[in-house]
Amino acid sequence: MISVARELAMVSAAGVTPQLNSPDTRNHIAVVDIGSNSVRLVVYDGLRRTPLPLFNEKVFCGLGRSVSATGKIDEEAADRAVATLRRFALLLDAMQVDQVQAVATAAVRDAENGAEFVKKLSSESGFDVRLISGLDEARLAALGVLAGNPRASGLVGDLGGGSLELVGIGEAECGNAITLPLGPVRLQAQFDGSVRARRKCVTQSFAKQRWLKNFKGKTLYAVGGSWRALAQAHMAAIDHPIRVIHEYNVLAQDAMRLTERVSNMDPGQIGLIKGLPKSRQTTAATGALVLNRLLKITGVRRIVFSSYGLREGLLFDQLAARVRERDPLLTACEEKGVALGRFPEHADEIISWTDPLFAKESDSSQRLRRCACLLSDIGWRVHPDHRADHSMAEVMNSPFVGINHLGRALLGIAIYFRYKTEPAEGPISAYLDFAGEAASGARILGRALRLAHTLSGGTAGVLRDCPLSVGDAELILSIPEKFADLNGEVLQKRLRQLAQALDLTPRIDIC
């Protein structure tokens, strides 16, 4: 446990840096996750700081269903898993992916015939299947959370079908990591039909872990399909405008109400829960029970759901320290800007050119502004009438990490107003309402980006010679004589719109 704590503390302490380097490799890499409930294959575009999933498939094999009762993986589930891995092997061969990380977790780990089953999986599929310990599973889940949020601090909880891994990260108690046999598939098989027995088992298991009380008032980072499904249900219940699981933030008291309600539902009622994925309905009540009791024993203040977990932790674990330290959001925005923009090098000029408008901004606001500049040309291929909505949707739905939902909304708003001066009907209204007063700064940034691209034509080199400055109640654009003809009606209009947003008077100096 000490080694786990030391490594996680080092990763968390590294924080984030604005270093933006190109990825070391573009070779595709696959992770095969053999869990107690499902067997999943994810193919990523490379071993990089922000790997993108190119292919994602899971099959519910139910390896853990019989382990509690018989101590063994039953033949039907084993055959289903073997067939699934053979399919995955053929797919990876067709994709020409030869880098494969295959790991088996709780059900295989706890089964009497687990070691024998691993050998069969390896021989039938050609994968080198690795059976990982509970503590290693906890460590990798925590690394995954840190990969998605380098500043994460609190308690990581990873609920799989067969087990629950708990580990402290950041400034909280890093000296404890544990695995508990509290996965929904296991509990339902062990206490078939007896909700009371499940409650007693979960409550007693947590009561023995006194160190969990050290996280009172802190944050629980929730990982695992059962808990992510509850997040989706909560989003639907409150009509949350951003339907992205990663960094979805719920106060513990609100989560307590939801989990109390779901955990007490009859199986027939579960299907009526709005937003709950059908594939998770059979385990929803038990997953809610585990979360409810964990919230009670820890006294955490809030839950942050993470889309990153064990699989991403496996990849993050293999990265060099210098790559781990990169800011995941800035890295992703740079890569998207390079992929979708015309002149990626233009972003650095826009960042410097807009500096005078944001002299008193915080570090986090400066980081978002840099991201917006990197993404400011991603809509150029789209019809002009749809660029604002399309580019905003690209931001709102991209698998970005290292950003919370408010930050994502502000970034989307800025990119929207880069292409449109005033909001039209559509999703932008919901994002503006969600962001509240903070939206005004994003609108100003969007208008500044619009002006920058109008002035420069989206090319590098012009902005350096045409500085923007703020004088006494004036917004001043200085244009050298050689570029005097750039001073047209559209440019004047864009400058006037930006000045109005800043409550300044526009002025153009030809010098």
Word description of this protein:
With 511 residues, this protein is of the alpha/beta class. The protein has three domains: 20-132, ATPase, nucleotide binding domain (Nucleotidyltransferase, domain 5); 135-311, Exopolyphosphatase. Domain 2 (Nucleotidyltransferase, domain 5), CATH 3.30.420.150; 328-460, Hypothetical protein af1432 (Orthogonal Bundle), CATH 1.10.3210.10. Helices cover 48% and strands 14% of the residues. It has 22 helices and 14 strands. The chain has helices at 2-13, 67-70, 75-95, 106-110, 114-125, 134-148, 184-190, 195-207, 225-238, 252-263, 267-270, 284-298, 310-316, 321-324, 328-340, 346-354, 363-374, 387-397, 405-419, 428-435, 439-456, 489-502, and strands at residues 29-34, 38-44, 53-60, 99-104, 129-131, 154-159, 164-169, 177-180, 219-223, 248-251, 302-305, 468-470, 474-479, 505-510. The strands form three sheets. A six-stranded mixed beta sheet has the order 8-7-6-9-11-10. Strands 3-2-1-4-5 form a five-stranded mixed beta sheet. The longest helix has 21 residues, at 75-95. The relative contact order is 0.10. Mean pLDDT is 91; it is low at 9-26.
CATH architecture of the largest domain: 2-Layer Sandwich
Number of strands: 14
Going by CATH, the homologous superfamily of the largest domain would be Exopolyphosphatase. Domain 2
Radius of gyration: 25 Å
Ranges where pLDDT stays below 50 over 5 or more residues in a row are: 9-26
User: What's the CATH class label of the largest domain?
Assistant: Alpha Beta
Globular, elongated, flat, extended or rod-shaped: what is the shape? elongated
Question: Total helix count?
Answer: 22
Main beta sheet, described?
A: 6 strands, mixed
> What share of the residues does DSSP label as strand, in percent?
5-15%
CATH names the topology of the largest domain as Nucleotidyltransferase, domain 5
Tell me roughly what share of residues is in helical segments: 40-55%
Number of domains: 3
Structural class: alpha/beta
* Separation of the first and last Cα atoms: 66 Å
